[in-house]
Amino acid sequence: MPSLPKGFVTRFAPSPTGPLHLGHAYSACLAHDMAQKAQGQFLLRIEDIDQSRARPHWEAQIYDDLTWLGLSWPLPVMRQSDQMPRYHAALDQLAEWGLIYRCTCRRRDIEAASAAPQEGAPAFGPDGRIYPGTCRGHTVTCAAEAAGAALRLDLARAFDRLGDLHFTETGPRHAGQHKITRDAALAYIGDPVLARPDMGTSYHLSVVVDDAAQGISHVIRGADLFEATAIHVILQSLLGYPVPQYHHHALIRDADGKRLAKRDDARAIALYRDAGHTPADIRAMVGL
Ligand code: GLU
Questions:
Q1: Residue 117 confidence class, pLDDT cut points 50, 70, 90
Q2: Residue 214: DSSP 8-state
Q3: Low-confidence winner among 94-98, 124-128, 136-140, 260-264 (lowest mean pLDDT)
Q4: What separation in Å is there between the alpha carbon of 220 and the centre of ligand 1?
Q5: Which CATH number is associated with domain 83-204?
Q6: Nearest CA to ligand 1 atom 10
Q7: In the chain, which residues fall in CATH 3.90.800.10?
């Protein structure tokens, strides 16, 4: 294995499923600036596990847009679709410990089984509707046993191997030391999907495996992913990976206060460029 970079290492990890917009420009430039200030490294990673939505032309546009913004990163760029064997190895390890199970529930099964949640208990967490546990117990001994079904992490069993967990957050909204307890994880997250039937992995598993493989010391990303961090720290701790420091930045919103999404093509970086704006204009628009 090549030696990992040391010191401050961060990354920007877009999915090539649409144009990058102002929110992405903010995230990428902020990570790049923070790395530069710390005399660290800024990496780019293409998160294309959803092959039904990823397109080569969007990936090409990501390189174009970021280069135009003045950012640079070492080559080769890691592409998640090339990393499947590493995701499967991580799943196999979790399976060997008896921590993952095969889940055949469809969305409507989960909805029906969760119809009467306990009073005060949240219905949704960072991995969607909190799983009622219907398939728990269908433990697998290796990832290949999923065979067209999803694989979920048995959180209660996972915590039998873990103590309370912590991570440090430096973002504006949640700055401080955060503790993840078993009871809170069971109530607010539920058993997360680690491998989707159509992908053989999931966002949570891939991001954790790759951040470790790339030696990411600082994760800088939008505040919409703050709640998912608990899932990532749980996985890092199970798999024996270091826990990076987290910085969840504010989201760029449109004039009505709604957060930008990929479908907000009107705010695509390429359109601003075509309209004659400069990279300095973009930085000013997002407050950098
Ligand atoms: N690929 C994710 C996205 O485009 C970002 C993942 C991350 O930064 O952890 O929203």
A1: low
A2: T
A3: 260-264
A4: 10
A5: 3.90.800.10
A6: 14
A7: 83-204
